[in-house]
Amino acid sequence: MFAYIVRRLAQAGVVMAAVAFISFLLFQYVGDPIVYLLGQDATPEQVRRLRAELGLDQPFFVQFWHFLAHAIQGEFGVSLRQGVQVSGLIAERLPATLELVFVAGLLSLLVGVPMGVYAALRRGSFTSQVFMTISLLGVSLPTFLIGILLILVFAVTLGWLPSFGRGEVVQWGWWSSGLITAKGWRHVILPAVTLAIFQLTLIMRLVRAEMLEVLRTDYIKFARARGLSNRVVHFGHALKNTLVPVMTITGLQLGGLIAFAIITETVFQWPGMGLLFIQAVTFADIPVMAAYLCLTALIFVIINLIVDLLYFAVDPRLRVDKAGGH
Q1: Which among 74, 111, 160, 258 has the fewest CB atoms less than 10 Å away?
Q2: pTM of the model
Q3: How many other C-beta atoms are found inside a 10 Å radius of the C-beta of residue 170?
Q4: Is residue 30 a contact partner of residue 280, using CB atoms and an 8 Å limit?
Q5: Computed from CA positions of residues 138, 142, 145, 151, in that sequence, does the dihedral angle turn out positive or negative?
Q6: What are the residues facing 176 on neighbouring strands?
Q7: Full pLDDT tens readout for the chain, 326 residues
């Protein structure tokens, strides 16, 4: 187990180094930050002085080493657009994104798993066919279109829910949350549903497919032959073994929620990291873009590591294979 963790940590370190290198290349090939800081009318002397102050006159690998050393400490320089520390901007926007992803992920699991189980156990029923049709729409429709349709129906036509912003939030130091206020919950519903629909339908289809596969196995037939009730067979044996691969995919999809949050936050003007990244791209704010890429990669790596460890702990076959040297 210890050797497995060390190996996974080493792989995670390689991935983060590669992402840091790609992020650093943004500084080299996505515009000149000196132009954005001084403007087109800057004199050659001003350009030379500022380039020396920022260390941009040093060799490529020296610059990358300084960038990597600061990135490890969570420092990515100053935003070219807002003139403040990037770490401060990330700390300000991170709670909103994590809050949105948490609600969307929880909604995906609480709705997707029961729908998948029902679609597997009642696969010939009308309701099951409706679920499968909804899942096709959820997978096929782009996220921004789903968000616009929800705004049109629930915000514009019915007027039930707000269409933008985060609502009232409560501040605890650098962390803020809208989940403990009524207005905060009303604001999070539409973006969370928009973000959750694709993941929800994916989980539903995965649970259905895995459940049907498990129900055809020999040990399920043996359980029925022993006279166990359908409830015990379905939920005590089949569902438990169905959730092992589902747990892996669901954990990986949590990282995908952060990626999809860029579109959702833009549609609903949700003040999270995704909206910050879009604004950074618009204004070529390279330090913010680099910080976002590194932080997103770090979250992916951490989630993948946790999922691998959980899978290792849940599935005894992996422990037997490792012990046997396979």
Answers
A1: 160
A2: 0.78
A3: 12
A4: no
A5: positive
A6: 171
A7: 667 677 878 888 888 888 888 877 766 666 666 766 676 777 888 888 877 876 777 787 887 887 788 778 778 777 877 778 888 888 888 889 889 988 998 898 889 888 888 888 888 788 888 888 888 888 888 888 889 999 999 999 988 999 888 888 888 877 888 888 888 899 999 999 998 888 888 888 888 888 888 887 777 777 777 777 777 777 777 777 777 777 777 777 777 787 778 888 889 988 888 888 888 877 777 788 888 888 888 888 888 777 777 766 665 555 545 555 54
- Alpha-carbon distance 145 to 101, whole Å? 19
Q: Are 318 and 311 in contact (CB under 8 A)?
A: yes
Residue type at 322 in one-letter notation: K
- Classify residue 182 as exposed, middle or buried by CB count within 10 Å of its CB (0-12, 13-18, 19+): exposed
Which of 214, 304, 262, 209 is closest to 9 using CA atoms?
304
Helix axes 143-150, 182-215, angle to 10 degrees: 130
The single-letter code of the amino acid at 175 is W
